[in-house]
Design brief:
single chain, mainly alpha, Formate dehydrogenase/DMSO reductase fold, 2 domains, two-stranded antiparallel sheet, 65% helix, 1% strand, globular, disordered N terminus
Length: 516
């Protein structure tokens, strides 16, 4: 019998004979066959690929997104996002030619939107690594339909994040001084600075993420190579497929390499945003000098990352209807639960910050948090609390977790809330230091806003190019979670001659499909 050959939904009558005998439990309780059957069906997990789709169907539908004529909606989205992306080079060119003063940074708010947006984009990328590495090591099969797109989001988010540290140093052409390269001036980086730790942590994170993403792509690139109808596409996909033929030795080496990269990536999920948090936690500024920042930042990054995955994947699911059989309600439900969990952890961290400030008996710490909640920037603080703590609690309702429109709307709260959080931590803290004579306020300039808007255009443009030219779902991995992947699975014998003929045609059509 197949693993998922029962698709009984609530309200469906069960095939239990009316005269079937009752069963007795260990303590004498009596259960009818109807009750036993209902209990058994409640334990059956919903399939990760709906409607018993064949392996050939999975290959066709995912590859068709890349192979078919570019849809109109893609061109419209690409033109809009490309227009936004053009703001990035324009604002950077203006900033370099004029000076960093075109941003709203001032004294004492020397860090403002630049570092706020850097931390925001680094956090967006954490969901991809979590889905790819940690959930792979824990054998969470539901990850297979979303891991490829989430990994791509990681790379594109890190690209957006890297723009800000490179530009905010002022003299961009001197940024190579951050690398420990011998040179005539004998100027070496300050290895005791968390800002330098950022350089190494983020560059390592990006490098390993690229390797992990590309390694998972190799079997699917070979599939696109074999299906290509033009010599150019066949050459390009074949070049990057590295001669993949799907032999036993190749699969064995591939799986070991993927496992090793997952093991390397797992510490990065925890270390990268912890290192980013050290930019603040190692200082003595009230509101920053706290040891709760590393786990607090990691939980917040995963929280915001999953919200961005839902933000992008839900519209794609509707724009390409076959994806609904691959990215199911179960996937959305699980991601909503993770947002609920991490949002609760972030809410706990907020409350612990307030408790630590009170318990410290430090007037500076206490005033820093009082100023966040009731000072001049109070709207940002309460927007952060509403979006990150209150809004995710709606996911306690299964009706909302399984309503696609409701999930998409609620997911926008963490997207906004995590930006508010970074702004509250950075800008509002620097506005009030130990010396009242140095207090000030930050006002974002037009350049600040346009550059941030441009990074969204860059992120979405890169993602649109990704789904147009590469398989956005891992074909080989999705096939591994279907019932057909079980070596002991046998399809039920069809009774209808038309079904038999359809199965024969299916087998002939996909005889050369070597991916499991």
């Amino acid at each position: 019998m197949a693993k998922f050959d029962v698709h009984t939904h609530p309200g469906t009558p069960l095939a239990v004979p009316a005269d079937a005998p009752a069963y007795h439990g260990t303590h004498g309780e009596q259960y009818t066959p109807q009750q036993i059957e209902e209990a058994r069906l409640r334990l059956i997990r919903p399939p990760l690929v709906l409607h018993d789709r064949s392996l050939g169907w999975i290959t066709d539908k995912i590859c068709t997104i890349v192979e078919e004529k570019t849809p109109l909606w893609w061109w419209v989205a690409f033109l809009l996002c490309g227009s936004l992306m053009s703001l990035v080079p324009l604002t950077i060119l203006y900033l370099i030619s004029t000076g960093v003063g075109v941003w709203g940074n001032n004294s004492p708010v020397a860090w403002a939107w630049d570092i706020t947006n850097f931390v925001f984009w680094i956090g967006i990328g954490h969901a991809g690594t979590l889905i790819s590495a940690i959930l792979f090591l824990t054998r969470q099969k539901w990850r297979t339909s979303i891991n490829r797109a989430a990994e791509a989001m990681t790379l594109f988010a890190v690209c957006c994040a890297g723009l800000y540290p490179a530009v905010h140093v002022g003299r961009v052409w001197m940024v190579w001084f951050l690398a420990p390269v011998p040179q005539a001036n004998e100027i070496w980086p300050n290895f005791r600075s968390p800002l330098l730790w950022d350089v190494f942590a983020v560059s390592t994170y990006f490098t390993v993420s690229v390797l992990f993403w590309y390694t998972g792509l190799i079997p699917d690139l070979a599939t696109l190579r074999d299906r290509a109808t033009s010599k150019i596409r066949k050459f390009i996909y074949g070049f990057f497929a590295l001669g993949w033929r799907g032999g036993n030795r190749q699969w064995s080496n591939y799986e070991m390499a993927y496992l090793i990269l997952a093991g390397i990536s797992t510490p990065l999920v925890l270390s990268v945003h912890s290192v980013v948090s050290f930019d603040f936690a190692t200082s003595i500024i009230p509101g920053w000098h706290t040891t709760i920042f590393p786990p607090y930042f990691v939980a917040g990054a995963i929280f915001g990352g999953f919200a961005m995955v839902l933000t992008i994947m839900l519209p794609l699911r509707d724009l390409s209807p076959p994806l609904k059989d691959l990215i199911t309600v179960k996937h959305i439900d699980v991601m909503a639960k993770i947002i609920l969990l991490t949002g609760s952890v972030v809410g706990y961290a907020y409350l612990m910050e307030l408790f630590i400030a009170w318990y410290s008996a430090s007037p500076g710490e206490q005033y820093a948090f009082w100023n966040r909640a009731f000072g001049t920037s109070w709207p940002f603080y309460w927007a952060m609390m509403s979006c990150n703590v209150l809004a995710p609690q709606l996911f306690w309702s299964k009706a909302l977790r399984t309503n696609m429109l409701a999930v998409w709307i609620i997911a926008q709260a963490p997207n906004a809330g995590m930006w508010y959080e970074r702004y509250v931590i950075i800008a509002t803290t620097l506005e009030r230091d130990y010396l009242p004579s140095s207090w000030g306020h930050f006002y974002a300039t037009t350049t600040d806003k346009l550059m941030f808007l441009g990074t969204f255009g860059l992120f979405l443009t890169l993602f649109l190019l990704f789904i147009r030219f590469l398989p956005m779902i891992a074909i080989a991995e999705v096939k591994n979670v279907t019932p057909q992947a079980d070596p002991h699975w046998h399809p039920p014998a069809p009774d209808d001659p038309e079904d038999i003929e359809a199965m024969r045609i299916e087998a002939e059509t996909h005889r050369g499909d070597y991916n499991p």
